[in-house]
Predict the structure.
Amino acid sequence: MSTKKIRKPKGFTLIEIAIVIGLIAVLAATAIVAINPARQFKLARNSQRISNVSAILNAVGERISDNHGTFEGTVAGTSQTCPSLAAGTDYAVAKGPTSASGALDLSCLSPAYIPSLPSDPKASAPDTGYVLNLDENDRVTVKAPLAEIGVTIEAGR
């Protein structure tokens, strides 16, 4: 009688390991596409822009309301003066005096109407990255031209 020992293989074969690695790679790729961190960061920046546009618009609206329907003039209780707005003009909103043509210094709004003037997450000082417009019907609109993912962000009153 033959006494052959049957050897049971220990461990995994190369094919089994390759299949498991392939499955992990497919699942990881699917998760990364589903999560898409770059897109999530863009959405977060757009959410910040929406909030900032609303804050600037509210501050301008409060200033106009407190000043009997006009924006320009001295802010009560301070030495700050708000500039005049021409209808039909797009103004780049600035946090202070700037040499850029068409830029509007809205630092007069802080701190009376807004704690500090917000900036777009991708803008560089003194430009805030936002645009203010007063149309012919005295309607004020604030826009965020640096919005991402093809979204248009603007609010008006």
